[in-house]
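[Automated response] Your request has been received and processed.

Submitted sequence:
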Amino acid sequence: MVFFIIALMQLQLNNVLPVYFEEGRKNQSEIWGKNLTFTKGEYVKIVAPSGSGKTSLMHFLYGMRKDFSGSITYENKKINQLSAEELAVQRSKQTSIVFQDLRLFPEQTVEENLEIKRQLNPFHPADKIKQMAERLGIGNKLKSKARICSYGEQQRVSIIRSLLQPFDFLLLDEPFSHLDNENAQKAMELMLEESKLRNACIIFADLERVDYFPFTKLYHL
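Generated structure:
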């Protein structure tokens, strides 16, 4: 009998600390200064009060900033040592993100913002954009420029955008800050479904716990 061992992709944090924090911050945190491993299929909740470095952590994990000590590795590759080309490939295939500040193209329509992202490395066909938009209550906004949409509508656009590509890890930085509870739950259900399709890990950082996120690990930043 032959047994096959499938190694799941891992993300590791080893003694990570932003350079602007004192060493003592490690004693107050379950993330900073710790050795942690996140694996595909896990749902990680990070409770992160204001000023604790939540957005910095998300930017570190996405490879946007390098102002930290310690190391962050994806499959034994240190993220701050990747070339620009290697980092671009990782972001298109392995890591997706919902930014707190959204980062949409304001003069492009909602549909254009989404289609631009989808075409970079398609996971879904083009008609999936309309399906997701309808599901999150913004189907009537597809032809509207992003800048004239409310912040809550833009937030849903950003959520859909993150789900149009392949990913092993989905990073969420306060993704529901401008959504009411009903719309937040609808968005969470969609993200959970999409993550299950990929057997992906969700790393969800927010100010408090969210009851409708079925975390398998909980940390306080």
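Summary generated for your ticket: Residues 181-198 form the longest helix (18 residues). Confidence is low (pLDDT under 50) at residues 1-6.
If you did not submit this request, please reply to this message.
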